[in-house]
Amino acid sequence: MPQTLGVDIGGTFTDFVLFDDAGGGVKVWKNATTPGNPIEGVLTGLAEIADLSGVRVLRLGTTIATNALLERKGARVAYVTTKGFKDIPFIQRGNRRAHYDMSWIKSKPLARRHDCYEIDERLDAQGAVIKPVDDAEVAALATALAHDGIEAVAVNCLFSYVSPAHERQIRDGIAKVLPDLPISISYDVLPKWKEYERSTTTIADAFLKPVVRRSFKAMREAFAGTGIGDRVVVIKSNGGEASLDSAAETPIELAVSGPTGGVVAARALARQLEIDNIVTLDMGGTSTDCSTVVGGEASFTTDFEIEWGVPIQVPMIDIRTIGAGGGSIAWIDKGGMLRVGPQSAGADPGPACYGRGGTEPTVTDANVVLGRISPENFLGGAMQLDADAANAAVESVAGPMGMSRRHAALAIVQIANNNMVGALRTVLLEKGLDPRDFSLLAFGGAGPLHAADLLELANIPRAIVPPHPGQFSAFGFTMTDARVDRHRTVQQISDKFDRERATDVLGELIGDARAVLAAQGYTSGIELQRMLEMRYLGQNYELELPFDADAFTEANTADLWERFHAQHNARFGFAIPGERIETVNMKVALTAVGPKPDLTELPKGDGTAKPAGHRKVVFEGGDEQAGVYDRATLRAGDRIAGPALVEEPASVTLLRPGQTLTVGTFGTMDVS
Amino acid sequence: MDYVQMNILESTMVSICREMGITLMKTSYSTIFNEALDFTCALADRNGDMVAVAEFCPAQIGGMPLLIKTCVREIPLEQIEEGDVIVHNDPYRGGLHTPEHTFFKPFFVDGRLEGFAVAIGHIAEVGGMVPGGFCGEATEIFHEGLRVPPVKIKRRGVDNEDVWKIMLANVRTPRYNYGDLRAMISAVDLGVSRIAGVYAKYGKANVQQTIADLMDYSERRMRAEIENIPDGIYEFADKVEDDGIEEREFDIVVRAHVRGDQLIVDYTGSSKQARGPINATLGVTWSATYNALLHLTDPTIPKNSGCFRPVKVVAPPGTIVNVDYPAPEVGGNTETHPRIAGTLLGALGQAIPHRAMAAEGSTHANFVFGGTDARTSEYFACYDLESNGWGGRSFADGNDSCDSINGNCRITPVEVFETRFPWRIERFGLVTDSGGAGKFRGGLGYQKQMLCLNEEITASQMSDRYKLAPWGLHGGRPGGKAATLIQRAGTRDWLTVQQAYNKVSPSKYSNITIRQGDRVILQMPGGGGFGDPAERDPAMLQHDLSEGYVSRDGAAREYGVTEAAE
Amino acid sequence: MKFSANRLYVEQYLKCDNCGILLYEGEPQIADAEAGKKFCSDWCVDWYRTETMKRFGRDAG
Fold first, then answer.
1. Closest Cα partner for A167 from A78, A253, A86, A81?
2. From the CB coordinates, do chains C and A have 3 or more pairs under 8 Å?
């Protein structure tokens, strides 16, 4: 009876989801995170499983890389580059974080300027050698590095995306002298143009290597006693799993691991429910993550920054995070306008209603005032909330605004909702996606509480609250596949498109990705996606088009250009027929599709659900008596008419007057 | 006033402007748009008041209010129909400089013109004497490119082909210009369709009222900020070092009168307009004034025309801060703008010293070039810009390599540049000791050395700070100066443009011929220092030495530190 | 702004002699015939007299 275990280590709780691959159901639990040594908390949770030998794989969302980057606690990195260009990481791109902020201090690279070195070599834009690498110069550099306390090396040569020969020669030359020193070359990490972005990504990879290696070693040792140490895999930023060995090779791919779980679960849910398009809303205490599943596929990006101006351009699931959550604080600005966030009460002291000394009004406090969160039944009754403290906190902004307390609480929730609408706009409208084609999948502790309000505001027709919305990320980890993404910049123009070269590069990318999967034991059942990023010659941003052949032929290439014109017209409202098209990047994604548990069907009910009680809830139109339901009692096919609340241990779902909730076959709650 | 409605509508309108900007960035052709982000997008009401704007280029944000207002005053509203798109770049009619093109598209609610979606952006090639728009030796507007008064480039949804043909016949890179114009139209199209949805959702009367409330709100916030500056008259002056035509300095003089919640910014006393292209249009001077003010006030104030009601700008006609027809003006927007803004910051910095900053490098270099690429036989033209060091501040060193205050533009990557243009960049590094010494030193400028690969390239430049260094504050020393140096193929000497081409100015010139094998160095200025260098924290100086920001000689000369460091 | 009779081109860009803003036909303008100046508003007339002339004398502007 093999089982899949997903573990998500959050700031407060570590979530566990155990899925029986043979359809024996799902078990969900959580325990406190142990911040100093998170594996300890994981081991505590493993005690819930009687027989660990049944666990086929333990998939772990890891914060090792994220924290090392945010806290800047990584290796001392030597940056090695083309002669004349060692200041590229310091010059950066010249733009400022904010227009009018003279107090801003520019972000620093993850390597010191003192540790930047140059090699007298040069390629031109076509990859031709202007100046070859001198092995003696590299050997001398390696000797210097040995004396300088360097812990890792990042090599980034100009135009290496066209030809990796120089970077490899430098890597090999250093390794000959210093065989144990971790070295990252930009061609392996990010074989794409724009030297600054490539430098920061390559430096970050080198910066992480020693840290991740050490952490994985410690992890292996910690799990040694459980007998499942060799079945632990980690989740990469692309939502795919990777073995510890594979992940340690390019640790930059672990930059955003945990939040991908929710999107992977959303994609699986979309497929099972046969929905094409989902926008996710993962709302927690301090932040909200939004992402999309379009046509059954998660959306990817290479546009990510560890802090402002320091990009990490590896392929990852496109998750937009805003600083708005249940703990976001409401305040009155100098002009008398009510604002919410980005300051958050966090977990400590938390919202005023937690009774831990917080006095400032938060979104959660407003929800208590509005009757949407029950003080008695928060976290399944595990925590008694202080309604008086919530009232007093909201009163502190209501008074000065000249509003009633209830009116102020409504305003706080409306503004918080509007902040989330802004995040939804960035993942939908700003990418040319029409919200009316989407379902809003709401999870995280607070997502289901706000989904009903957001439908109308964001022009989205329906919302879905999945089973176990509070543990949805860990749930996603039970559904993850091994996935490898490979990109390379290959600029070609449509009127002189070298089909042979394009075919060769595509083959190389696929071969490379296959080898990475094979090294982890995946050789069959591999799904393959090929994409080209292209634009009108002269533009600077690309549209991505799928391509589904191994070779470029006259016919499928002509079709590609036609599809580009059509997509440009669809996305931007115009096309330039006959214009030359430039292909910029070629991309492949290989997924080794593993066994995946199906969602469990919920027993069918008689269509009516019985409320456990009633409660007064405040809406814009006035007070309403809302039925309060216990989610555990709901059955497939049950329908509930709003206003209503559905409570479960980690979350509450709100239904506005006029909205209807239907319980789906797999236990989802659909609100429309 | 419904503050909740205001908050929601404001962020919705700003995100519409952002969305317009993203469309523009993603579909435009010129690197000045899509890499450098030299554009912005806004929404305006039917009176020509700006109601929301996206945070792209600050020079254009501050320029919007006058620009929109002027166009609305010029074209009678009853002549504007649904589906029209108006294009305009006339510097004397609210514009900023010839390359800056503005597109307006009206939106109608219940059959009545309700407002405009507006996109403004820098088009790299505009015709005129030199490729790339920046003619350092222009003496008339006609040298600077094609001037377009407000005309309809689309009429009721259909391209007005006559206008397209005239505009595209007068530029060197029509294929690129066509793409840029299309991108701008696509941005205003998007803005109009989105704002129409907002009116439909919230109701016309409600939106109108909320927009009026929002402008009042911004006005109130701005008045409260000005009220916080001690009353008084604050004076400051700076100079533009020459105009490319005459070898003499030009004064920018400001008297800022803070009277309660009102600010009067009087530039009377500034030099008469120059013969060369350093003159600022009135739009530039308003924009620079607003830019400085926004740097000193709360950044969360919603940016709309209401913000600027408490501010009165006095810019006498016929001066360097308000050029009269037909004098040239292309450098006013890039070079004189930061000088005007810096002067006002210098003046108001006396009232609020904790917010003051020493002079930033404040030039964009504006090294423009064009030619026929021998590899493709295609004509190319490039307008790129460069960044410089910030001034030291009361609490921190200046940032290295940042775009000047009037832009928030990005420099073009070496790999993009070499792929597009027949140059090889040989060195691109920070200039040691270019940050003005101080308790908090200025940020560093950089140097870029380029080798010409084409048989011939024609270059021009419109820059400053080659002779007069960025000033320090409170005892801080000046930052490093800018330079352009030429090395002819087969020679070893580096010459200024004056030496190599017999030009009047080292920083403002037109149409020099650079041949294959010639090298060019562009050096960008550092920022001025803040406070007495003797007061610099020894640990910070030690760090400067070990990281190579300050040389040992520099430490000895500027900080009086001679013992071996490191 | 003085347009040609056929309104196809500008004959003169007219500006307020104090603040420098364009003066369009049909909008209020205040002429100071004695000084040979024109202004957009009473405020500008006043500022020109009390500030500018005081600082720079009669030939100011």
1. A81
2. no
